[in-house]
């Protein structure tokens, strides 16, 4: 009998979780795809990297999708069981809370293991791959510059424009305007016009240079004594550092590297990664008593409360991680105090549901 109940409830919660996770993943993939499509349309990314970047971003977003999908899966399943009086029938048939809750905990453990692998190992690999694609995209800078459209760089301080592109994939009739401060701290501008712009990559260092052919360079502000006009046959501008350089960003570092580091930012990063599977287990335990509702309350009665708890929980973990980075909270305490508080709330709700406090109060009386 216990095996039948376990199999039935496990299939029910698994189906619900898969539907919720699938919908959230689809929305996440769509949002990421739309974002990278917009960047490609603006000339900031090569078009052929859009889908790959969206998939890697999806892997990173699994850290968010898996915990909330587990919470919603348990809440929705328990809500349906209570609405259809199946939960009451199970208890009337002699099934205890341990028998009923075991399938939910089992699924949470499986999802937590998968989420741990994603957040600890796959997400850093995805971050490295996105950095590599970004570096490779920088080495093909001419592909991201659409002719006939103005493109801004340096937070809007530089403007690039090309009239057309020739058969050799070089840009023609180029205009560049850069606003910078001069040695005296006064605003100054540089305008460069050229017949052609081509890309040149150093085979040894990997440095990418935008080479301008046959043009003029205007430096300074018109009307001032230091205004200069220079004609050039060839003028080079470095546009990218060597591709493939290792990133020092903690987001892309391995778990072993983070654990070996004494940097508080590294401590905050690995604690945040480990928090993903831990939060799945705690949220599943919290959802078990929270999801049990009266039959007439409806399937979605506690979903809003569950989402609110999730938002508070996740933001508290994030704020604790930021405090660890700023060394406001010691790394030993880290984000664990947030997990302990939510776990204590979940355990107390389960104990209350089992009548532990009522029995203790009766014994005391």
Can you lay out the helices and strands and say which pair or pack?
Blueprint lengths: L1 H40 L8 H34 L2 H7 L4 H42 L12 E3 L4 E8 L5 E11 L5 E15 L6 E12 L8 E13 L14 H6 L3 H28 L11 H23 L10 H18 L2 H9 L1
Antiparallel strand pairs: 1-2, 2-3, 3-4, 4-5, 5-6
Helix pairs in contact: 1-2, 1-4, 2-4, 2-6, 2-7, 4-6, 6-7, 6-8, 7-8
Describe the structure in your own words.
The chain has 9 helices and 6 strands, in the order H-H-H-H-E-E-E-E-E-E-H-H-H-H-H. It has 2 domains: 2-138 and 249-364, no CATH class; 145-240, no CATH class. By secondary structure, it is an alpha+beta fold. Residues 241-247 have low confidence and may be disordered. The two termini are 38 Å apart. Helices cover 57% and strands 17% of the residues. It is elongated, with a radius of gyration of 29 Å. It comes from Salinisphaera dokdonensis CL-ES53. Keywords: Cell inner membrane, Cell membrane, Membrane, Transmembrane, Transmembrane helix, Transport. Belongs to the LptF/LptG family. This is Lipopolysaccharide export system permease protein LptF.
């Amino acid at each position: 009998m216990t095996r039948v109940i376990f199999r039935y409830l496990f299939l029910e919660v698994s189906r619900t979780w898969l539907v919720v996770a699938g919908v959230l993943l689809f929305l996440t993939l769509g949002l990421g795809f739309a974002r990278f499509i917009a960047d490609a349309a603006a000339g900031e990314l090569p078009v052929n990297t859009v889908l790959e970047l969206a998939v890697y971003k999806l892997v990173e977003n699994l850290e968010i999708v898996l915990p909330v999908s587990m919470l919603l899966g348990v809440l929705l399943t328990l809500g349906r069981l209570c609405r259809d009086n199946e939960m009451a029938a199970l208890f009337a048939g002699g099934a205890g809370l341990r028998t009923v809750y075991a399938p939910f905990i089992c699924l949470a453990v499986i999802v937590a293991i998968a989420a741990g692998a994603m957040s600890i190992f796959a997400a850093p690999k995805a971050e490295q791959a996105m950095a590599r694609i970004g570096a490779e995209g920088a080495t093909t800078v001419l592909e991201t510059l659409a002719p006939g459209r103005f493109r801004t760089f340096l937070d809007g301080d530089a403007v690039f424009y090309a009239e057309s592109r020739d058969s050799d994939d070089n840009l023609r009739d180029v205009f560049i305007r850069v606003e910078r401060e001069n040695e005296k701290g006064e605003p100054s501008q540089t305008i460069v016009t050229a017949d052609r712009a081509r890309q040149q990559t150093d085979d040894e260092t990997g440095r990418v240079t935008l080479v301008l052919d046959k043009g003029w360079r205007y430096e300074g502000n018109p009307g001032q004594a230091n205004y200069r006009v220079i004609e050039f046959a060839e003028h080079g501008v470095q546009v990218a550092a060597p591709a493939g350089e290792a990133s020092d960003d903690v987001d892309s570092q391995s778990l072993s590297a983070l654990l070996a580091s004494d940097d508080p930012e590294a401590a905050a990063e690995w604690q945040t990664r480990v928090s993903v599977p831990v939060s799945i287990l705690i949220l599943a335990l919290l959802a078990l008593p929270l999801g049990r509702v009266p039959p007439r309350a409806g399937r979605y009665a506690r979903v809003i409360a569950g989402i609110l708890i999730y938002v508070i929980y996740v933001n508290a973990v994030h704020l604790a991680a930021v405090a660890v980075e700023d060394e406001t909270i010691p790394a030993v305490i880290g984000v664990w105090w947030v997990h302990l508080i939510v776990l204590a709330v979940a355990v107390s709700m389960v104990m209350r549901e089992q009548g532990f406090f009522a029995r203790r109060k009766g014994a005391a009386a």
